[in-house]
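hey m, so remember when u said the tokens were messed up on ur end? i reran from scratch. heres the input so u can diff it against urs
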Amino acid sequence: MANFTYRIDRFMGIDQSRDESLISPSYSPDAMNMDASDGGLRVTKGFSKYVSVQIPTLGGAINRICFYKNASGSVPVAVTETGIYTYSEANETWNLRVSFEEERNSPCTSALMTRIGMTDTLLLADGIGRVLKFDGSAFTEFGSAEGCSDIKVNCLAMFRNRLFAAGDAEHPDRLYYSKLPGGERSIEDWGPDPDSPSVEGGHIEIGAAGGDPITALAAMSNQLLIFKKSSVWRLIGDRPGNFTVELISRDSSPVFGLAAAVYRDVIYFVTKEGLCSFNGVDASPLPDARMIRGIMEKADVTDTRLAVAGDRLFFTVRVGLETRLIEYDPTLRRYMQYGGFFARDIVNDEGSLIIADSRRYLEKWGEGDDFDGLPINAYWTTPYTDLGDKSVIKSLRTLYLRGESYGDGRVVVGAEVGFTDETTGILLPERVSEAAEVKLKNEGRVFRLRIANDLGGRFALTGGVELEMSVRKRTE
């Protein structure tokens, strides 16, 4: 019999890309509501109310949350099935600004902040009605029949100072573009200009295959990416005379309207394969997209929302009746998932992630010790391992932890070894200079650990963990 110490030097994130026996112990095949951003392991921060007043229930389901922005600040805007509301901070009320004649439950309501002339303007497009524009005071219809811009579209993007639009149900392959603003020209005019073709508006048919409508648009600094149901295209050039459309990918997975975003001039988007990117040449899953393979195999991405907040990417997926919020750190290339709440929409506001939750509140992510009154249930599992020697029996003895419990935040340690599960809950020492010991007693050839909180309590581990055990052959 010999002694052996199993060490986890630091905690990183989720890895479901391969068999558990091949995963580094720093990664978890299954974790929820944990924060490992500094190499330690702690229960994640929750969220708290960003707007203290509930979006009116008479509005029906929330389709989209966005912000109108100008030099004076930002105004929250909620698009629901029955109308559009704006929030007045002075009166602390949501005010109904637009009433729809019929209920609208659009899978994609595109929101775009731009300028028309010298006016900061928010454009909203759902493909069901005319595009609407909001100048901070009133909502009015965008465009005109004379300007060939009274089209019902649901995808908007600014590229090369022109407005591009798509999602016209009558012409699903058509990409519209506005005139180049200047003089008396405006992005509300999509018509021709015989006197100056280089600044005129118009449209282009993208792809000739039927049954492949445009589903999303995203713009980089030097090209516009056009997502269709089963293909991806790009447009380059700065005027109609040199616009060039190229096929990037054929037989690709669908990208739905709100599942694409730009971060540092790279377009990220979500498909059933996971998080993907377009780097200017190729549109494909990230090299580490398989690290959340297990989550994505069960996920529904038809209503996925993707947002950039700070230096992180966040996107939602549906797993059964639950919402999972997936966080991706593009610098460290790691994922974490969060759950226990329902997110109807997510959006960035001044570097913070804002969530529209099931209770119709706008919540700010990363604040508070719970999910606005709901407990945070968090856990981290280590990979199943036989330590590379299946013939050896491992007798677990002691798990050593360092860290801090907050209030009555107990650490619940579970050890699954052989056919036996054992669970122990402890409070960490008051000083991080001390190490806590968790006594274990069972044995087997394969084991894994589970570190969780208790009843929403909070704790933080630092310096990794160490598991002391004895190992022996069957004949010993």
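this time it looks ok to me. Residues 310 and 351 are 5 Å apart (CA to CA). if urs says something different then somethings off w ur setup not the seq
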